[in-house]
Amino acid sequence: MSEIKICCPKCKWEPDGGEYWQCDCGHIWDTFKTIARCPACHKQHQYTACVPHAGGCEAHSLHLDWYEGLDKIIEDLKEEVLENQEVFI
Ligand SMILES: [Zn+2]
Ligand SMILES: [Zn+2]
Predict the structure, then answer these.
(1) Between 81 and 36, whose confidence is greater?
(2) Ion ligand 2 contact residues with beta carbon within 5 A
(3) How far is the CA of 2 from the centre of ligand 2 (A)?
(4) Is 84 helix (H, G, I), strand (E, B) or coil?
(5) Please, which domain of life does this record's source organism belong to (predicted)?
(6) How many Å lie between the centroid of ligand 2 and the Cα of residue 42?
(7) C-alpha 14 to ligand 2 mean position (Å)
(8) Phi and psi based region of residue 26 (left: phi greater than 0; alpha: psi -120 to 50; beta: remaining)
(9) Quick one: which of 23, 59, 74, 88 could link to 10 by a disulfide (CB 3.0–4.6 Å)?
């Protein structure tokens, strides 16, 4: 299995576990703990902002773009699924 690294796709800042993100409902939490879903109102956030005051930049990026290595894992899974299909058909 490939490793997933979480970092800003623009500046490569890595979240340090701090609670930097605020939902529209006012709740503040670490968005990477819940894959961008607010634990208070359960809103799924599509975009995640970088955190300038923690060393990041000002960019907003698609949440999934923060997961480096995810494309590779999805490719691996697809291959696995295809291989399994060949076995069972
Ligand atoms: Zn919320
Ligand atoms: Zn950034």
Answers:
(1) 36
(2) 8, 10-11, 13, 50, 56-57, 59
(3) 23
(4) helix
(5) Bacteria
(6) 25
(7) 8
(8) left
(9) 59
C-alpha 36 to ligand 1 mean position (Å): 10
* pLDDT tens digits, 20-74: 999 999 999 999 999 999 999 999 999 999 999 999 999 999 999 999 988 888 8
Ligand nearest to the CA of 54: 2
How open is the CA angle 13-6-45, to the nearest 5 degrees? 95
CA angle 16, 28, 23 (to 5 degrees): 115
- In terms of pLDDT, which residue wins out, 29 or 78? 29
Query: What confidence score (pLDDT) does residue 68 get?
Result: 92
